Amino acid sequence: MCLYVDDLIYTSSSDLLVEEFRKAMMIEYEMTDLGLLHYFLGIKVTQMNVGIFISQEKYISDLLRKWKMGNHKPMSTPMDTNETFSVEDGAGKVDAQFYRSLVGSLLYLTTTRHDMMHAIHLMSIFMQSSRFILEQRREF
Hints:
- The chain is α+β, with helices and mostly antiparallel strands.
- The protein contains four helices and five strands, in the order E-E-H-E-E-E-H-H-H.
- The protein has two domains: 54 residues, no CATH class; 83 residues, no CATH class.
């Protein structure tokens, strides 16, 4: 059983237990049974006889649209393996709020995209360490 605010998800390997639980909850609480789970917190759930599959396809599409990256080509690896991050890389100033928002959006993506976890983790570390460096510079 998973409860998030006012959404309740429950499952079991026994159809009988699922039905008993559903009936007991509906007697005890005012509930609406929406049937099989299809979406939850931006995660698409596909249920088949061979298993349950989850994806964040719509979330990814929304992110690409939000960050204006819809026309970019897909890559086989989420990050150039030789890439290094540096506060003083010669590039123009980056909007810190924009960068934090982007990294936060990508962190949620690691729910289903474990292959991207390392790259997003590095971005997050860089975000924190560069903020620390910039704050230290302001003190002098």
